[in-house]
Each structure stands twice: as C-alpha cells, then as structure tokens.
Amino acid sequence: QVTSRKYPRLKEVDDVLGGAAAWENVDSTAEPCPKCEHPRAYFMQLQTRSADEPMTTFYKCCN
Questions:
Q1: Residues in domain TFIIS-type (predicted)?
Q2: Which of 55, 54, 26 is nearest to 42 (CA)?
C-alpha cells in the first residue's frame, strides 16, 4: 500500500535565444506572420550547428 507520494522537481529551462533582450536590436523583413498575417517579422541568425553548416534563421512577429 502506498502511504506517500514524492514528485520529482522540474528542471529549470534556459531561454535558448537569450530572452527578450536578444530581440531588442534585430532587423525586420517583409515576411508575413503565419498566425496573424502581419506583413513584417523580426529575424535573427544564429550558428546552431557546426561551422560548415549554414546559419539558422529565427523569426518573431512584429505585431
């Protein structure tokens, strides 16, 4: 018979892209948002793989 339950602690999650501060000084482009159809989006490029692979582009809606 079970007399008590013990739940494991959740791991802390780090923001991979650096949080809101990483998006402060980024460029925007004429890429429409697929969710709200806003005509512009911010973008940031990061090297996520080895140096011989192309950079990964991340987009965030301007709206």
A1: 29-63
A2: 26
By the 8 A CB rule, do 38 and 28 touch? no
Q: Does residue 61 sit in helix, strand or coil?
A: strand
Q: What does the radius of gyration of the chain's CA atoms come to, in whole angstroms?
A: 19
Name the pairing type of β-strands 56-61 and 27-29. unpaired
Domain positions in the chain are 13-61
Q: Contact, 46 vs 29, CB < 8 A? A: no
Q: Which two tokens stand for residue 60?
A: 């965030």
1-59 pLDDT, tens per residue? 778 888 889 888 767 777 788 888 899 999 999 899 999 999 999 888 898 999 999 99
